[in-house]
Amino acid sequence: MKSFIAGLMMTVALTLIPSAFAQDASPFASGSSWRNELGSVMTITSLGPAPGQFTDTYVSAVGCEAGTTFPLSGWANGSAMTFSVDWGSNCSSVTAWTGQYVQASDSINTLWYLATNDVGWSGLLAGNDQFVRVN
């Protein structure tokens, strides 16, 4: 009888564990917004068409064209993600972020690279951002 109960408990546990992970598999839901420590906001507006692909809008609170909405595109694979923004002809630069979703803080920790049209190392900047979920 003990082995039957132990087997039943194991079956229930193995059934519930994958569904618990599935809930956390993609924190990048359509309609979610994320704000970084500088006040810039990324909003995921569309998922797909390929698995893990998303398109968004990004409003930077700093730098060239601050406050302007720019298109953003990216990819997610579980908790790993990357996205990029073309700041347009007035800013002559692009930025790419790569990072991971952290469930404990409901945040995305990223490293970013900004490339400008200035040739050489002076045209490359790097840093980090933490995005927290707004909604």
Structure description:
The protein has 135 residues and is α+β, with helices and mostly antiparallel strands. The chain is 17% helix and 47% strand. It contains one helix and eight strands; from the N terminus they run H-E-E-E-E-E-E-E-E. It has one helix at 2-24, and strands at 33-36, 41-47, 53-59, 69-77, 80-86, 93-102, 107-116, 124-133. It has an eight-stranded antiparallel β-barrel with strand order 1-2-3-4-5-6-7-8. The chain is globular and about 40 Å long.
In short:
This protein is α+β, with helices and mostly antiparallel strands. It has one helix at residues 2-24, and strands at 33-36, 41-47, 53-59, 69-77, 80-86, 93-102, 107-116, 124-133.
* Broad shape: globular
Main sheet properties: 8 strands, antiparallel, barrel
Oligomer: single chain
Q: Beta-strand level of the residues, as a percent range? A: over 45%
Helical proportion, percent range: 10-25%
Mean pLDDT: 84
The tally of beta strands, per DSSP, is 8
